[in-house]
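Can you make up a protein sequence with its backbone structure tokens?

===
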Amino acid sequence: MYKLLKQEGLARRGTVDTVHGTFQTPCFMNVGTAGAIKGGISTMDLKELKCQVELCNTYHLHLRPTDTVIRKMGGLHKFINWDRPILTDSGGFQVFSLAKLRRIKEEGVYFQSHIDGRRIFMGPEESMRIQSNLGSTIAMAFDECVENPATYAYAKQSCARTTRWLQRCKAEMARLNSLPDTINPHQLLFGINQGCTFDDLRVEHMKQIRELDLDGYAVGGLAVGEPTEEMYHVLDVVVPHMPEHKPRYLMGVGTPSNIIEGVARGIDMFDCVMPSRNARHATVFTWNGIMHLTNQCYETDDRPIDEHCDCPACRHYSRAYIRHLFKAKEMLAGRLAVMHNLYFYNTLTERIRSAIETDTFAQFRAEYSGRLAKLIR
């Protein structure tokens, strides 16, 4: 499934073959939580914005419109009209971050919906069944997401539970994929490494779950408020123990600089709501740094958002016009800014892939890792 094409240092250039097509890595997955990118972006737009993989969320789709409705509609690909790979998050993070009340037991988690308060249960088998109903390309294992900071004792106990849950996910996925009426019998399963910021727990957990020979492996539980250097340290510790012949996914990350630094440490896949969420609040990413489009200095600026970008927004509209749209609270403002940011992120990983291919990633990192994090005033 994963093919390593080129390597420069720890940075990897590869491909991932799936039943819904091949995607190139390093890859940024665009987050369409409830089956759409917030900001009025359609799946047809996503193709123009160079999106390779869309990420949708099990928890949200299970609550609304429900996975059974989506199954009746022929699966998520047909439902949202997308013929490229889809990765579905297991719902674990949302259960632990959004649910009003929750109770963790060995069988799974009892919680109340953040929408209407109704009582719901989700465990490894339930998460796999929901994701099977969705028919996504890649399903994520159901894990326990521990709040940082956590005690060492609890983090250790949680890692053990996550491993047991992962074994159950694998068994249930194999069963579901063997059924004659399964929407996607070739659904892939990725396991998630946990362990908070404890080096020994991270390494030991990674060693345990790699023995299960899954289709890919993710590093979870980061980008939840810990210092950036702490996140990088965890990657430095964990990545050497991840299988070389499987895709490596850093969940929920992050800024353009985070992506460059993650690639430098051997990560292949990323996702984050940041480009769309920030765009809806007039914050955009450019090749010279970060801009706030509502700033007064853009009131009569007739340049595009980024003079080095050829996204639909930059090809057709000025900073002054988009600023006006934000000030007037027009929906088009967010749509144009989201289109720009998604295009920027997908172009960033495209340029990273090219740099690795030509052995110039070290220079690319030196030039852009710091620059892309700066605020333009």
Notes: The CA atoms of residues 11 and 264 lie 5 Å apart.
